[in-house]
Amino acid sequence: MAERTRMFTSIRIGNVEVKNRLALAPMGAFGLVDRYGCYNQRAIDYYVERAKGGTGLLISSVTKVENTVDSMIDGFLPCTDIDPARFVLTASEMTERVHAYGSKMFLQLSMGFGRVLAPALAKKPPVSASAVPNFWDPSVTCRAMTIKEIEFVIRKFGEAAAIAKRAGFDGVEIHAVHEGYLLDQFTTAFTNHRTDKFGGDLRGRTTLPVAIVKEVKGTVGKDFPVVLRFSIKSCVKGFNSGGLEGEDYQEFGRDADEGYTIAPWFEEAGYDAFDADEGSYDAWYFAHPPVYQRHGLYLDHTKRLKEVVSAPVIVAGKNDIPELAESALAERKADMIVLGRALLADPSWPQKVLSGKEDQIRPCIGCHVGCMGRGFEGKHLSCAVNPACGRERLYRIERIAEPRKALVVGGGVAGMEAARVLSLRGFEVSLYEATDRLGGNILPGSVPDFKADDRRLIAYYERQMEVRKVDVHMGARLTADQVGDMDVDVVILATGSTICTLDVPCSHPERMVDAVSVLEGAPVGQRVTMIGGGLVGCETALWLAQQGKEVTVVEMLSALLSAGRPVPFMNKDMLLTMMRREGIREITNTSLLEVTDEGAVLVDNHFRTSTVPCDTVVTCTGFKANDQLFKELYGKVEHLYNVGDSQVAADVMTAVWQANEVALNVS
């Protein structure tokens, strides 16, 4: 294992020394606050777990400095202004415990969301720098903030910083000239049409963030560090329209040159560091990069940023591969690495790197389902591959009092997660997999280059089977009689699912194949019609189009990516944008009727037929549970459990969470 020397050197931000160059990103603390905007026990446990895992600097969730101008529903985000005494009480317990592990903690302070506040979360009509359309509902026009309101908010930043200092925070981060949030809406020309001192030219549009840092420093002193959350560029082609890397487009928001121009102004005003990234809500797949984005996607721009400022540059952007993080620091592309979802997936990421156990890091797979996706559903922050995230106290692994034996049938992620947790609890675990490879349905799903993170997850679980000394039997398909004859105390079935087939007339059966077979190597012609526009169908279609195939996607619903669990917005937006860039044709409200010599015969929801000429029809209309073994054993085997796709064909999060829940609690 390579030595990570730079990563574990200390760094100073203002007058605060941080023990290493790894920071927890400021992610939304959904479900981690009470109705007064103060931290609950879940939040305290969540942050302490990341400090315990070795992270040098923890940056809190976005915390509002007031909730009257940019007003959202109570209890959604932390807020220093609703009950300051209660905020200090709960936050001080958290900072005291974080400090016990040698970590520092900064409180991220925000004036709010402005045009990107979802109307469902707003208590009042949304505000912005100017009268511009709301991101989520363009029919709603935001009200321009008055000078009196702006000056009120500036004062609130100073008051909030004083509250942060009393609560034991080591500094604050200002949210944000970043991602198109309310403060950022004052700095970009496409959202700031003001003619007063807070608008006009580029210098005028930076008046507000400059005034904020001066107010904070004037209130709590120059020695209290103030970091700026800063997007170097917006990556925007227009309202609700983002660009793609490598695409030639006119920047509608802040371009990189503008970012390099204003950063020194902010440093001169008093900001002690830059927490840098790219993107905006209009290009959310840059600000919250999904699986389809490359790792380290901001590093070229942060390297240039370091050439124009002397303050430390902290960088986010999928730098969660240790070798990449170390090289970014060694090559002076950044001074500090922010880990966001990587620390949701594995809060011990820093400690594992430091102790030479990089191959035991549980990777983020870029799905957003357990973190941002749950936020959209009104649920608490967590992680698809780490069910304990956000509920650390409830999901502590406790060892059994006496040795017991467990049988796990199935070597996909559900089976391997069950085996991992059971072994940690002290069970003697045997796992039987019918095929010659571990991974289940993630194996074909991880074939496209843009799904490499899924392959990292499989590698993690394979390594866990070795480390935990799970007795793995490959190529072993068990019958109900064989299971019944085994001397075990617990049986967990995780036998997965199979792709559904379509029973339609087909003149040439060799021209019709399912998506899993295609991903596993089945040949397809130049012209491909994909039947099924769910996540697997769309990803397979994109993969084929990237190989130069001419692809049409046919979906029976009114839009692609509509069935099953909602695909988180940033993943959905980027996938569809990539598909359209590749020229993939979309046909909705339509089903496959038959396959003829001419191609795919379709019928729409008005019973009109049409034919799409093609060489191959690829079907991907869902998966069905492999639950036959469970049905045969139910009522015959004591302590029998069925988890993952063999219970209900769903996704990685469902598989991992069900397996973890059962393995954590069986006795």
TrEMBL record:
Signal peptide: none annotated. SUPFAM superfamilies: FAD/NAD(P)-binding domain, FMN-linked oxidoreductases. Its cofactor is FMN; [4Fe-4S] cluster. Residues 7-359 form the NADH:flavin oxidoreductase/NADH oxidase N-terminal domain. Residues 406-649 form the FAD/NAD(P)-binding domain. In the N-terminal section; belongs to the NADH:flavin oxidoreductase/NADH oxidase family. This is Putative NADH oxidase. It comes from Olsenella profusa F0195.
